[in-house]
Amino acid sequence: MKLLSSCEWAWSKYYVDFICEDGKWKFWKMRLWPIYKTDFYMSWTNHPEMEPTDFPFHNFKPSPQKPWEWGKDNIYPIDEPEIPTPYEHYEDNIPSLWDKYI
């Protein structure tokens, strides 16, 4: 009997801005940084094709370059989201890399 899968492993990073309102911290803006996804029933470390997959978001634009792929000899990319710094006033400082996607 063959199982039909609708489950997937997904590895993503979130780029999140928080805001403090009435002494409580809340999500203000959130962006998703997809890295890869693969079938749930197959180990992501043994996936035979390890090809990038586009995510069908309503505002998705195709990546101008091939996404990073897991591999024992691959080095994690240096162009990942920056660590946020606290601020008193907000100006949308989206890293220039994001300009290609929004």
Biggest sheet: strands side by side, in what order? Answer: 1-2
Strand proportion, as a percent range, falls in 25-35%
Oligomer: single chain
Q: What's the overall average pLDDT, rounded?
A: 69
Which regions are unreliable across 5 or more consecutive residues at pLDDT < 50? Answer: none
The succession of helices and strands, N to C, reads: EE
Please outline the major beta sheet. Answer: 2 strands, antiparallel
Rg over CA atoms: 17 Å
- Classification by helices and strands: mainly beta
Per DSSP E runs of 2 or more residues, the count of β-strands stands at 2
User: Total helix count?
Assistant: 0
Terminus-to-terminus distance: 44 Å
- Estimate nothing, just give the exact number of structural domains: 1
Based on CA inertia axes, which overall geometry fits?
extended
Structure description:
It contains no helices and two strands. A two-stranded antiparallel sheet has the order 1-2. It starts with 7 loop residues before the first strand and ends in a 63-residue tail after the last strand. The model has no long low-confidence stretch (mean pLDDT 69). With 102 residues, the protein is an all-beta fold. The protein has one domain.
